[in-house]
Amino acid sequence: MKSCSTIQRLRKPKLLDMSIFDWLLSLLLAGILGYFLKLRGFAWVIFIFVWILFGVVVHLYFGINTMLGYYLGLNPKPIREECL
Fold first, then answer.
1. Nearest CA to 30 among 17, 43, 18, 19?
2. SS3 helix, strand, coil % of the chain, rounded to 5?
3. What is the rounded average pLDDT for all residues in the chain?
4. What does the pLDDT read at residue 1?
């Protein structure tokens, strides 16, 4: 096994085998963008849904297997590299 990079260490904590760090960073970026777009109420909910959908489509387009894509039946389960 190889040693972990900083990003691999940040991505180790998982919920439903999905990186908590990735979700938090994505939602933080959505929050910042939503703030600048002055989204409120139901528009905010739709924006978050579209943000996640956009992420799924981009990953599919570039052939990146994700656990969310796996749970949605869109791609095979991603292979994880283990590190120390």
1. 43
2. 55, 5, 35
3. 92
4. 64
